[in-house]
Amino acid sequence: MEDRITRIVNLIKENKEISDFKLIKKRISSKELFLIRDKIDMDRSVETDDITVTIYADTEEDGNKFRGDSSFNTAPSDTDEEIKRKIALAYERAKFIKNKHFPLCEASKIVDEKSYLDELETIKRVKDIVYKDYGTKSKINSCEIFVNNIEENIVNSKGSDCKSKKSEIIVESIADACGEAGSIEVYRMFSFSELNEKEFEEKIYDELKEAEDRAMSKPAEPIEAVDVIITGLDVPDFFNFYKYQASASVHYMKLNKFQMNEEAHKGAKGDLVDITYKPEIEGSIYNSKYDSDCVVLKETQIFKEGKMVGLSAPLRFASYMGKEATGNLVNFEVKKGSMSIDEMRKSRHVEIKSFSSFQADPAMGIFGGEFRLAKYFDGENESIINNGAFSANIMEKGKEMYFSKELIHIGPYYGPKYILIKDV
């Protein structure tokens, strides 16, 4: 029996005007558990089998070659006529997009197959950790656990054919607590490719402790210039500025503030930025040998000792700039710093535990926002505060910032758990 990919490829080839194409087939087997407090509200199994089709259309104007693309999804129930209609519509849309011409990856054959997780066993282990007694006054109000086993196949019109198998665990939880500040809820979402029980326990404890502390916190009063410690879940976003500056697309559009081998912060007194993109880091759901274009992912250092030394270059912009493609890298590692968290806490500081929404503008370098929970140490006493805010510019404050020796995994990030910014 003709498989779905071959069937769709044959339908695409009937349209002789189409320049190129790409198909991404993703089959997901999922076990899901929904809990209220520690009682099961619902459990279910879900199977999906979808294909995303991208159609490319090449045009030429005044001797300049352009390439447009348009994508659509197709389900197993789609008939040949429905798929043909979607193909024709995608091609018509793609013709109106005038991007500079770029190639597809040719004859890439990669297999990246990992062992699947036991879905039911993993769900039980996750549930036991979430509802363990952590000795806090707060409790987990509700929780949703998803264990997904994913099979993927990417093919294109240039002979590339990449296959992968992997698993992912997604956990969404809400902790609640009551206190002087009223009734508080804290939402968290965690994702990982394998269960590290010790790290996950720490993350659940941090969520519960945040709910407990927020319930007992008081509104912040004006504070004069003070050191700020950024913690936990907001740390990875702080580095968006550096990742943006080391992006091939940004350099191609001439939006970069730094040139290659230029120091990010001339005369810096603190720790220097050291960032490396990696195809795989422990526990990340983004681990892969290749990207969605079938380009082999290459470990790429973008900052070393405060200097920009490399660019992240997906296939399209690598071709524009005449560079070797690194692939569309997601995982990144930041080198640990020179200070422990205990050393950071010795000076007068505000340690921000949770933002309403941490803002880190990658283009301008402005970062900060309103915080929901922080600890203020005035040099003698510590108090728990909420509803404060700050704003700073990384171009200025990057001249004296310190990264912690303590490290943490958060999604695609592995690096310092704390960042100390002086005199905010």
Please provide a written account of the structure.
This protein has helices at 4-13, 80-95, 119-130, 197-215, 235-238, 240-245, 248-252, 315-321, 341-344, 394-397; strands spanning 20-36, 39-61, 64-74, 99-100, 109-113, 139-156, 161-179, 182-192, 218-219, 227-231, 275-277, 300-304, 307-308, 332-334, 349-355, 359-360, 366-377, 382-386, 388-393, 401-403, 407-410, 413-416, 418-421. The protein is of the alpha+beta class and 424 residues long. Strands 9, 10, 15, 16, 17, 18, 19, 20 and 23 form a nine-stranded mixed β-sheet that branches. Strands 1, 2, 3, 4, 5, 6, 7 and 8 form an eight-stranded mixed β-sheet that branches. A six-stranded mixed β-sheet has the order 13-12-11-14-22-21. A hairpin with a 5-residue loop joins strand 16 and strand 17 (366-377). The longest helix has 19 residues, at 197-215. The N and C termini lie far apart (66 Å).
Cα-atom radius of gyration:
25 Å
Secondary structure tally: strands: 23
Residue windows where pLDDT falls under 50 for at least 5 positions: none
Query: What fraction strand?
Result: 35-45%
The whole-number mean of residue pLDDT values reads: 95
The major β-sheet equals: 9 strands, mixed
Which term fits the overall shape? globular
Helical content class: 10-25%
Distance between the termini: 66 Å
Provide the structure class. Answer: alpha+beta
- Total helices: the number is 10
